[in-house]
Each structure stands twice: as C-alpha cells, then as structure tokens.
C-alpha cells in the first residue's frame, strides 16, 4: 500500500514525486475529488488498508484535504459521516461532496451500501441524505457523475450476497439511476430509474469515468466477474463509451485510425489503373488482427504471459474514409490493454489513462503505463509511458469491484 503523491507534467512529459509532510495513511480503493475552493483542494475519503502478511486489514472513514495552493495536508474531523468503506463513489456537486455506496468487509462478514451522504464544503458538516423514490440496490465500483442539468447519474457496479454457507454469488449491475435535487427543497433529493437508448456498455464494474469537454460522461474499461462456486474469473475491457445526459443516450467510442500518406483522387488517376484497383481491393478486405504477447517476470521468478489482440485501424466498425480524403493506414492499432480501476483525466481535449490492474491466472498485475487520446481527432492512442515489464506490482486476491 502507498500514500505517495505524484504529479504528471503534460508539457515536459515527466512524473514528479511530491513529498508533503503529514499525508493520509497508506490505502487503496478510496475516492478523491478536486474542487476550486481555497485556490484548489483535493479531498480524500475512506478506502482500505491491508498489510503484506495479511494480518491487518481495515476500512477507513477519515476525511482529508490537500490544499494545492499551500501544498499542505489537513485531516478534517466532522461527526456524522459515512461508515468505513471501500469501492464507494464521490463527486463534487456545487459546494458539496456527494458520496454513494461502497462496501465493508471483515473476517466474518461483509456488507454493501446504497446510502447517500453530503459534506458541505463551507460548514464542514456531514449530512445523510434520504432521497425519495426507489434508488439503486447496494453496490460498489459503479459510475457516479454530474450531468449538465445538475443531477447525478449512478450506473452499474458490483455486489455479492451469501446464497448458502461459504458460498457467495456476485451480481454485475447494469441498471441506471438519476439522483435529482428537488425544486425549492433544501437538501431534498429524488431517485428516478432511467433507461437510456443507444449502444449501452456490457455489464461491468471497476470502470473509470471522466467528463468530456462537451459535457458527456466517458466510461473506460472495467471488469465482469464470472463466478462459479469454487472459482472467480474476470473478463477485462478496454473499450470506450459515452453517455449523453441531454439525450439520455449511450454511444460506443470508435477510433478512426491513424492516417499516413494522403492520396487525393487526382493523384490516383495518374497512377497505374491496376495498382489503384489493387489498393481498393486491399482497403475493402478486413484486416487480420495481430496478437501481441508480452512476458512479465515477477521478483519471485514467476512469468506471466500477457496476450493482447490488436485490431487494425478501421476494423472497429468505423466507416471507411471517402475516396477524396482516403488514406493508407499502416500497422496495428495501439491501445491500452484491458484493465479495471484505471485513472482518467481530461485536459485540453486530451484523455489520459494511467495504470489499473488485470488478472493473469491467479495473479493480479498492477500497471504503471500512461496513454493519451485526442478527442478532437479520435484517431489513435499514443503511448506516453510504456508498462515497466521488469518491475510489476502484484496484488493479492482482493475484490475487483473496488
């Protein structure tokens, strides 16, 4: 577990470790939110700690703030806050932090939550909200995001329940809800179940969410657990989906593919006609996917083989380019490997994806690679930092829905 703080400089393409005295204790599966108050603040709530030997494990319920202007940590003590938990979600809504869901696990039992809490950034007071209507069932690892209309969207997530002694059954949720403030009612909210149209994400949890420049919600990756009585296998994703709250519609994010040498129609006419026909036949045929195999060696000597199928540009359902602006596309498409719990950030119209984790057999591999995608072009992923294959981090058998 770590409690380190790093800053990535976009212009210099460099990571820098920032050492600030008195940070929060080491943890994972917490939530952080950045707000503009006080020159910029980073708020941190909850999460979990597990010692390497497995002897210590507990959930946090503490609240911390990093003052970005002065680079100082402060623990904010306020009664009446949420209980200790992991896998919850938290967003900034006006001058409040709104927190939903999560789970708590002990050696004897576990519990999933669907409660809603508000923290006032002016008074530093916690309040438990009691929205009217039927809301989501208890869950963790879901989507929680603000719509341009001022409501809060909850989508998907994961929960499990005991079906008989020592046997649990997991559920991948794919329902969607709107948490809306009531007009004229201070602190009063209403739950509404919604059914968006369009191409919806497949059931999953542990995906990552960010807000695009045109106020759409971006969803990336995640995992869908396939559970048997004695085994658990996760299917990981690296796809992109966009949710448009104004139209209540999902869209599948598709890349156009990189363009190399542009060939105008007038130039094609001057070429050999037979060569032009060959080019057309080649563009019409479906490109073969390329399987890339990487081997990651752990410090204990264990070798994990990572297989990733890279599709050639244009094979993800995008229409071929018009002849006038046609392009010869070369090489397979580079993209982040499937993963859950990655970190997303959008700056200057660019999407940044850092790290995450995936499973390889009974091992969990933690990634440290960094990718970038230009929303204006939607052509191709760019690798800013390659995965360090020599020193992977290994996780234990922790729940994936955090």
Automatic annotation (TrEMBL):
Source species of the chain: Spermophilus dauricus (Daurian ground squirrel)
Positions with biased composition (Basic and acidic residues): 269-281
SUPFAM superfamilies: Kelch motif
InterPro entries noted in UniProt: Kelch-typ_b-propeller, Kelch_domain_protein
Region (Disordered): 261-285, 314-334
Protein name as catalogued: Kelch domain containing 4
């Amino acid at each position: 577990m770590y409690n380190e703080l790093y800053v990535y400089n976009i212009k210099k393409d460099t990571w820098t470790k920032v050492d600030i005295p008195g940070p929060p204790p080491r943890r994972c599966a917490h939530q952080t939110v950045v707000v503009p108050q006080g020159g910029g603040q980073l708020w941190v709530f909850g999460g979990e700690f597990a010692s390497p030997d497995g002897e210590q494990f507990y959930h946090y319920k503490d609240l911390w703030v990093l003052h970005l202007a002065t680079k100082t940590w402060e623990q904010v003590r306020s009664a009446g806050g949420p209980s200790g938990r992991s896998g919850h979600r938290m967003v900034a809504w006006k001058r409040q932090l709104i927190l939903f869901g999560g789970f708590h696990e002990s050696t004897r039992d576990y519990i999933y939550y669907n409660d809603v809490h508000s923290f006032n950034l002016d008074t530093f007071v916690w309040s438990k909200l009691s929205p009217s209507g039927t809301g989501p069932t208890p869950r963790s690892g879901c989507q929680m995001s603000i719509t341009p209309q001022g409501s809060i969207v909850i989508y998907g997530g994961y929960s499990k329940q005991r079906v008989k002694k020592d046997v649990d059954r997991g559920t991948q949720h794919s329902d969607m809800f709107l948490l809306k403030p009531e007009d004229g009612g201070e602190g009063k909210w209403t739950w509404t179940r919604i059914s968006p149209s369009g191409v919806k994400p497949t059931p999953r949890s542990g995906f990552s969410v960010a807000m695009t420049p045109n106020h759409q919600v971006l969803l990336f990756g995640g995992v869908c657990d396939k559970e048997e009585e004695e085994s658990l296998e996760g299917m990981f994703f690296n796809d992109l989906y966009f949710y448009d709250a104004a139209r209540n519609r999902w869209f599948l994010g598709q890349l156009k593919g990189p363009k190399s040498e542009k060939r105008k129609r007038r130039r094609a006419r001057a070429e050999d006609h037979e060569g032009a026909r060959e080019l057309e036949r080649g563009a019409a045929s479906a490109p073969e996917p390329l399987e890339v195999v990487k081997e990651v060696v752990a410090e204990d000597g264990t070798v994990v083989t990572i297989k990733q199928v890279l599709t050639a540009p244009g094979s993800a359902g995008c229409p071929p380019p018009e002849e006038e602006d046609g392009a010869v596309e070369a090489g397979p498409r580079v993209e982040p490997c499937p993963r859950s719990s990655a970190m997303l950030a959008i700056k200057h119209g660019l999407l940044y994806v850092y790290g995450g984790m995936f499973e390889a057999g009974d091992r969990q591999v933690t990634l440290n690679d960094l990718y970038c995608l230009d929303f204006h072009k939607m052509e191709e992923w760019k690798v800013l930092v390659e995965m360090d294959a020599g020193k992977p981090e290994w996780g234990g058998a922790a729940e994936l829905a955090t």
